[in-house]
UniProtKB/TrEMBL annotation:
Keywords: NADP, Oxidoreductase. InterPro entries: CBR1-like, NAD(P)-bd_dom_sf, SDR_fam. The keyword Oxidoreductase applies. One of its GO terms (molecular function) is oxidoreductase activity, acting on the CH-OH group of donors, NAD or NADP as acceptor. Gene3D superfamilies: NAD(P)-binding Rossmann-like Domain. This is Short-chain dehydrogenase.
Amino acid sequence: MKTVLITGANKSIGYETARQLLQKGYFVYLGCRDINKGNEAISQLYSEGLTQVEALEIDVDQIESIEKARVMLGEKTIILDVLINNAGIGGAMPQTALETDLSVVTAVFQTNFFGVIAVTQAFIDLLKASPEPRIVNVTSGLGSLTLHNDPSWKYFAVKPTAYVASKAALNAYTIVLANDLRDTPFKVNAVDPGYTDTDFNNHSGPGTVPDAAARVVKAAILTADGPTGQFFSDDNAPDTGISPW
């Protein structure tokens, strides 16, 4: 049975991603900052007959929490097949380039960028033990520099500085990581789940959570001949579902 760790998975897209992977036969470690909320999510999945799941307390903003989670997971398994870096924040809005407080930028980068690097580095040894390791970084179309420089692409009147920059940095890290692992069985990709109806955006998105999660799952279950170092986005590359940065 393949194993997967999903950060920020006690609700929304992360939770639905867990559900869909459970339905595909994966054993899911459901990462959450609040173990009580994680256990509530576990109870809901159990009620649906999805029992191959455990909550794992992990705060991607805290190195100590990440290290503790790595030790705990290492006591349960010697192999991790999939890591999905899903945890993310938007930060206080609005975020103009000249007026956004540096504390907001720092907080957003801590979760969306530095946290991803810290978690990936902490669990990479367990991933290397898998014959077909997969790393999925949940990003956003807002992190695409190409789209931002396209005058016909208008997403926000005021672009959220901290969030945009953090996801652009995440996209760059995904490319670098995929390159470092290019001669291995790893597949490392970023996924834009789309503008989805979630708490994250005050339920302003038109997309559904199941559809968004399905995009993440698609990258998590890539076969050996699948791409690596790519940006998956059905919304922003509708013809192919995959587009390079």
